[in-house]
Amino acid sequence: MSIQTISWSSGHVKLIDQTLLPHRLQYIHCRDVKTLWRAIRRLSVRGAPALGVAAAFGVLLGIKTFPGRDRKRFIKHVEKTSDYIATSRPTAVNLFNALARMKQVIQRHPEASVAQLKSLLKKEALAIYEEDRRVCRRMGDFGARLIKNGASILTVCNAGALATVDYGTALGVMYTAKKQGKKFQVYACETRPLLQGARLTSWELLRAKIDTTLICDNMAATLMKQGRIDAVFTGADRIAANGDTANKIGTYMLAVLARHHKIPFYIVAPRSTFDLAIENGRQIPIEERSKEEVLGFGGQLTAPRQVKVYNPAFDVTDNALITAIVTEKGIIRPPFRENIKKTFRPKTKQAGSRDRSRM
Ligand code: MRU
Fold this sequence. Notes:
Elements: E1 6-9, E2 12-16, E3 27-30, H1 33-41, H2 48-64, H3 71-86, H4 93-108, H5 114-144, E4 151-155, H6 170-179, E5 184-189, H7 196-207, E6 211-215, H8 220-225, E7 231-234, E8 238-240, E9 245-248, H9 251-260, E10 265-268, E11 274-275, H10 292-295, E12 296-297, E13 300-301, E14 314-317, E15 324-327, E16 330-332, H11 336-343
Parallel strand pairs: 4-5, 4-7, 5-6, 7-10, 8-11, 10-15
Antiparallel strand pairs: 1-2, 2-3, 8-9, 9-14, 12-13, 15-16
Helix pairs in contact: 1-2, 2-3, 2-4, 2-5, 3-4, 4-5, 5-6
The structure holds 5-S-methyl-1-O-phosphono-5-thio-D-ribulose.
5-S-methyl-1-O-phosphono-5-thio-D-ribulose binds next to helix 2 and strand 9.
């Protein structure tokens, strides 16, 4: 399969321009923070885990040309750069968690010189990148257990290799199930307005030779009623301490439908998508995007230009509608508040061990 969505390559960020898929597989080379910021904003790079990696690499772009050895000025510069990256998109918490990790590197090394900090920051950004590759495969191992042989799965948006470094969350589970020799088929919701399901998920799944059927978003209820769906698997952009989950607009609708039809509804997301500082989903900031995205597609108007438009990019699924959350630490089931806490409880430090706490 092998899709390399984002990488750090000879001092710049190389990423697939996802706005051109499925027609063209083309890369953008971001050599400065502004270019990266724009790539995030226009969804050339998208998907919560990929945004975390992009943010960390963005800090590297920002510090690359920092002149001099003044530590105080350097720290200010890193803060300014990460504040700027933080304005690109508000919902996926991976982006903010990655920026926080980068800043913690500086706090953990109060004596380090500018040159040393530059190298430590690079190490951290590459660790975030490598971790994504590792945890996606771990989630794949856990989540594949939930896919029964012969199953028919529904998914929305794109939670695949294109939303991560190279493997995926919800689609990663499917890749692992396929490797295990399981037979299953996938229905992909097209995911208006930007069609991540139609353009990206169907492209990815076809490349992986997974039996895939594309449907319009408004067909999901009928498929469930017809008994064609055995499970729903989606990714997430931010999960609150109680398990309420923000994901692409339309996810909540699928969760309500799944409950009505007694179909299991699974979220697949790594620790970096959890925001344990917020109690519930009401506190999750939901991005609103431009009216142009709804008025038409690809520059073609499909509605009267004057019509009012509301375009929230994400919705929140209440924890009560979620059957389980697959993470790299295992499968979390209700009651979510307690079990999320237990799953991510920091390991108690052993005497003399180094502090490796993060985020
Ligand atoms: O607006 P997008 O395309 O960035 O939205 C992405 C999603 O909602 C994904 O489902 C989510 O980030 C999970 S990605 C593994």
